[in-house]
Amino acid sequence: MAVTLSKHSYGKSHVCLSYISRKEDRHDFIQLSAEISLEGKFDDAYTSDDNSKVVPTDTMKNTVYAIARMHGVDSIEDFAKNLAVHFCQTYDQVESATVSVSEQLWTRIDCDGQPHGHAFTGGGSEQNTCCVSASADSITMHSGLKGLKVLKTTESGFEGYSKDQLTTLAETKDRIFATTITAEWDCGNVSEDWTAIRILVRSKLLEIFAHRYSPSVQRTLHEMAEAVLDSCPAISEITLNMPNQHHIPADIAKLGLQNHNDIFVPTPEPFGVIEATIRRDG
Amino acid sequence: MAVTLSKHSYGKSHVCLSYISRKEDRHDFIQLSAEISLEGKFDDAYTSDDNSKVVPTDTMKNTVYAIARMHGVDSIEDFAKNLAVHFCQTYDQVESATVSVSEQLWTRIDCDGQPHGHAFTGGGSEQNTCCVSASADSITMHSGLKGLKVLKTTESGFEGYSKDQLTTLAETKDRIFATTITAEWDCGNVSEDWTAIRILVRSKLLEIFAHRYSPSVQRTLHEMAEAVLDSCPAISEITLNMPNQHHIPADIAKLGLQNHNDIFVPTPEPFGVIEATIRRDG
Amino acid sequence: MAVTLSKHSYGKSHVCLSYISRKEDRHDFIQLSAEISLEGKFDDAYTSDDNSKVVPTDTMKNTVYAIARMHGVDSIEDFAKNLAVHFCQTYDQVESATVSVSEQLWTRIDCDGQPHGHAFTGGGSEQNTCCVSASADSITMHSGLKGLKVLKTTESGFEGYSKDQLTTLAETKDRIFATTITAEWDCGNVSEDWTAIRILVRSKLLEIFAHRYSPSVQRTLHEMAEAVLDSCPAISEITLNMPNQHHIPADIAKLGLQNHNDIFVPTPEPFGVIEATIRRDG
Amino acid sequence: MAVTLSKHSYGKSHVCLSYISRKEDRHDFIQLSAEISLEGKFDDAYTSDDNSKVVPTDTMKNTVYAIARMHGVDSIEDFAKNLAVHFCQTYDQVESATVSVSEQLWTRIDCDGQPHGHAFTGGGSEQNTCCVSASADSITMHSGLKGLKVLKTTESGFEGYSKDQLTTLAETKDRIFATTITAEWDCGNVSEDWTAIRILVRSKLLEIFAHRYSPSVQRTLHEMAEAVLDSCPAISEITLNMPNQHHIPADIAKLGLQNHNDIFVPTPEPFGVIEATIRRDG
Predict the structure, then answer these.
(1) Helices and strands: H and E segment counts in chain D
(2) CB contacts, 8 Å: B165 with chain D
């Protein structure tokens, strides 16, 4: 039987790195997880016993630490770019290398109003992310964030939606709106100040979420995206994923008690899923 | 500023259903989780406060249970197809509906060699999956499985690979090969016996994994895919994802002891990632 | 200020080991995770900078692999005992050593009715467990299992319970009963056939769960414990923990549909928790 | 065969509540998960089919929302106390009720330096906890926190420890110290300002962690506990659990590169476990 290997990639996931940048007056600390994926002329390893073109994933792992030594880790974008370019330039058989990095965030401990020089708290669900794809003649770069959990206790409603015989949802002008934001935007391929852009994106996302009345997750998502595009000329497109993590009014009427829209059951499942890509025109 | 809503979808995830099929002599039991995603004319909800086209995700949740009542749950493929078609046929604004279902597996308890009529054990990582996309004029269907964890203690090696100054991996003719198989194949859109096909696919995957010497994960993956295509004429293409979950020989030489290739450290991270799509020619 | 160090222990958790026992005609394979906890004369490390009594937890990790080399891994109970005894006998400052082991289960792949010699499937939630505490003059040993997920679709009810103004639960003679069994029993400290006992315990737990009508989780738990004590003279006491993992009838009446006690919503939370210890009299 | 039901308890876990306290100028928001466990005269349900004494765990769930209505949720300690007392006072068969509450933390979004009135970020691993046990004539209360993840990049070492032939760990004066703090302290049973105490405890834990050189996890744990007892007269005893979450220097010497103690591999397992209870004397 004749078959075709129509698509294939391989790589290493969850290569974890902690990096200390020892400044004179303080230490900076970055903890990241990298995923490397290569595409190219690796067919022989699939269709025969010939591994001669295969760069072991163990070597990819070593490369993460070697690149950290050789180039440092100034930002996850720079680091991912250095890695992706290395794989493309070093191995003829590599046609494209994609490196995704997610960064666990650590915040300086504040003691008596002073940020500490080398002690941090962590553990948040929010992560900074980036994804860089490099080939012989191009580099595409995306920055992002994920796990940014937000909630507002009011100024959110849902009314005027499509109804039929399977609709039981009650319209409301005042509900809890909780979501976990995942965002990804293009960030050019020259040396932008990725970190400054991320800070600006994040602040715009939070500002709109907090300040605008939300008639639907969709509308708020779109307004958040617009605000980002409006304030960051470097970004031409942003994708937002915002699940609707429901907090349902507890049914205490059946207990002879009244719910003043203040007692809720947060539910892990099911949840709504809303995702859209918005791009700047022209 | 002018922006374009270039891509968008929304839906409901983790709608969980347990379904008892009460046969005369026994109960069949199926537990599944459905994810529904709609694309269509929902722009107004993003660009204005107009929700009139939005089918609430709460209604999608209700629909899962209503479809279970109206059509039963014969297979996850049939169930997903019924759901996807319902959304396309019921709502003009829906251009395509995608329904993904994963099924937790339950096995009849065996008492004194007799399969019990209504008692089961569960808890395995393996799940049956399917994904159905329906539009006004077409349906595409894929079946799959995920979480199928397999391991062989020998008959696996890795030699003759590309080496450079960042290579430290030692070649071996005898290593542990552990992976967790995710597979997805097209399964026609007529009423195939999806379950019979899945059982055949699964047995071929396991057979090749167990019986062939593995010179690389890539090679074994390809052989497994070939065997599936060879034995299942209904399948034209299969995608396999097989991470390389490393068990590393424990370094006990530093303790003055000898490792006879029998004492290993199983490692959660990093892990290799190998994925490929193989299709039948012609 | 004067303070007292009233209780303290330290150790290493998640020391993971994969062990191949190479028999002539087949390989046996065991994958386990060990946790070691020491109590003893370690006060100085807490109350001063003196670490001289501290056995590094890194050494404990090394010891796991060394003991695997020196004594093999016949059963998790033997292995845990060898480890616990090692720490007590080797270090004067150790007053007691507790070693808990959990084993991930691997099942031989069956090909054409033949169990394969070295290929396995895994991924189940069920684990075998044991806990051994050793001091200079005593050893106590417990065997157990956890993660044994079971479900019955009928022959379970709940009626005649205490009612008051906060009760909204409806009585039922026919509900789904789903739980995940954790069991722990004493298993002597001499060389019992731990594995044979575990197999017998497991089969008794499943047999009673499957065959007896359950008027409450409590009643079934007690009957399961009684059956174990009745059939295993070596066991004098067993503790069972059986959460009540609710599958709630889907409320489709509000959709104008009828639930024939066959369409349920499995819920991750909240869940009931039922735990009891039953011991043989006299 | 005669058996004895030597110990038993039952209850409900993961009863989740979101509570909005609507103040004039802002909303306060609390999200918690409660676990209720009852002990008492429930033997009949185990040893016979008599459920007449059993308070359904479903009623316990309802009670969580009813108590939120009747008494509000000022602090998790008050809430847990109200719940525990309710069960003891309402049901004769209850001999003791234990209520454990963990609170997910939400932080007000800061917009242009102003804390927002009803929008929050969440997602941190840190939780506030408490545990209240009530019987007819006594109440014991503990407050705590868990999931407080901290890391320092220097000012931590480990030297002078016990060595033998299984020791391979190198001594160091400069290592990363990372841990996730779990703390529990007694907090009286009268109406203390639990929240003020928790804030003080937390600040003392962080202050000592950040500012003192750590010769061992044990020493630092003890100093942290001492500082808490020293600054909080209301606390007589504190238990701290501080796993040693290792970041291991990446072995890049094998790549011909030098590690300046700045490139590390963070490891999920194995990890050290250090736990101690320290109490005030006299």
Answers:
(1) 5, 12
(2) 255-256
Taking Cα atoms as reference points, which of A203, A214, A215, A239 lies closest to residue B5?
A239
What is the spatial distance between Cα D100 and Cα D36, in angstroms, rounded to a whole number? 7
Please name the helix (run of DSSP H) or strand (run of DSSP E) that holds residue D76, with its range, or none.
helix D76-90
Q: Spell out a b/e string for D66-102, using b for 16 or more CB atoms within 10 Å of the CB, else e.
A: bbbbeeebebbbbbbbbbbbbbbebbebbebbbbbbb
User: Consecutive sets of 10 residues in chain D, 282 residues long: mean pLDDT of each?
Assistant: 94 98 96 98 98 98 98 96 97 98 97 93 98 95 98 98 98 98 86 88 98 98 98 95 98 98 97 97 78
Q: What does chain C look like in DSSP terms, one character per residue?
A: --EEEEEEEEEEEEEEEEEEEE-SS-EEEEEEEEEEEEEES-HHHHHSS--TT---HHHHHHHHHHHHHHH--S-HHHHHHHHHHHHHHH-TTEEEEEEEEEEE--EEEEETTEEEEEEEEE-BS-EEEEEEEEESS-EEEEEEEEEEEEEESSSB-B-S----TT--PPPBS---EEEEEEEEEE--SS---HHHHHHHHHHHHHHHHHHS-BS-HHHHHHHHHHHHHHH-TT--EEEEE--B--EEEP--GGGT----S-EEEE--SSEEEEEEEEEE--
Does any CB of chain D come closer than 8 Å to the CB of residue B256? yes
Residue in chain D closest to B167 (alpha carbons) equals D255
Label the pairing between strands C94-104 and C27-40.
Answer: antiparallel
- Strands A237-241 and A271-280 turn out to be antiparallel
Separation between Cα atoms, residue C209 and residue A205, nearest integer Å: 52
Q: Which CATH class is domain A144-282?
A: alpha beta
ipTM of the shown complex? 0.96
Stretches in chain B below the pLDDT threshold 50: none
Residue of B nearest to A61 (CA): B270
Q: What is the pTM of this model?
A: 0.97
What are the tokens at B5? Answer: 């809503």
pLDDT reported for residue B34: 98
Q: What pLDDT, on the 0 to 100 scale, is given for residue A282?
A: 67
Topology at the third CATH level for domain B9-137: Urate Oxidase (3.10.270)
List all residues of chain A from 192 to 211 with a beta carbon under 8 Å from chain D: 206-207, 209-211
Gap between the Cα atoms of A18 and D12, Å rounded: 40
| Per-residue tokens: C97 | 């050593």
B87 is in an annotated binding site: no
Question: Are D210 and A151 a contacting pair at CB < 8 A?
Answer: no
* Amino acid, res. C209: F
User: Which entry of B81, B142, B204, B246 is annotated as an active-site residue?
Assistant: B246
Place of tokens 């809303």: A274
Q: Examine the residue annotation and report whether D146 is marked as an active-site residue of this protein.
A: no
Contacts of A166 in chain C (CB under 8 A): 255
> What 8-state DSSP symbol labels residue B212?
S
Local structure of B54: helix, strand or coil: coil
User: Any chain C CB within 8 A of the CB of D58?
Assistant: yes
Tell me, yes or no, if D12 is annotated catalytic. Answer: yes
Q: Label residues A69-97 b or e (16+ Cβ within 10 Å = b).
A: beeebebbbbbbbbbbbbbbebbebbebb
Determine whether C63 is an active site residue.
no
CB nearest to D255's CB, from A66, A106, A111: A66
Domain boundaries, chain A: 9-137, 144-282
Residue the block writes with tokens 């994040």 = A202
CA distance D250 to A79: 17
**Measured distance CA(D229)–CA(D201) in Å, rounded:** 9
Q: What is the mean pLDDT of residues A1-17?
A: 96
pLDDT tens digits for A221-268?
Answer: 999 999 999 999 999 999 999 999 999 999 999 999 999 999 999 999
**A247 bridge partner residues:** A266
C206-247 confidence digits (pLDDT tens): 999 999 999 999 999 999 999 999 999 999 999 999 999 999
